[in-house]
Structures are given as C-alpha cells and as structure tokens.
Amino acid sequence: MAQQDRVKSLPDVAFCEEKKGLINEFIAANHVLWTLQSQQTQAIINDDLDFMRFDDLIHLAREKKEQVKYALIAHLEAHHC
Length: 81
Hints:
By secondary structure, this protein is mostly helical. Helix content is 78%, strand content 0%. It contains three helices and no strands. The two termini are 24 Å apart. The mean pLDDT is 88.
C-alpha cells in the first residue's frame, strides 16, 4: 500500500490519467501476486499439504501483472508521457 501512496502523492502534471490508472493497476497486481506467494510460503512452513492450491492463483496473478505491465509499456510508447 505504501507504493500506491507514493504514486498518488506525485504531481498530477507528471502523469496522464490513463498512465496513472495503469500504474495503479500494476501496483495492485504486484500486491496480489506478492500476497498469494506469501500465503503459499506460509502454508509450506506450516506443513499444510494443500499448499499447491495456490499454484493456479499465482499463475493467474502473474499473468495479470504481465498484461498490465505490457499495457503500460504500450501506452508509454504510444503517448510518450
């Protein structure tokens, strides 16, 4: 959450609205991925034999992060902002 606060504290003139939205989506996607990986790690540490239940969720979260990353890159290349 601290990263989101840093993005929001930057001056509005530095970013177009679409770029700000994509940055916030990227940060959120990273947070979801990190949370799932942390939960899986905790399950492994706690000898939870069902720790693999996180695999598909982590895979989907990783894909979402990549999609948003490439959308942000495409936006930056197209709009030069």
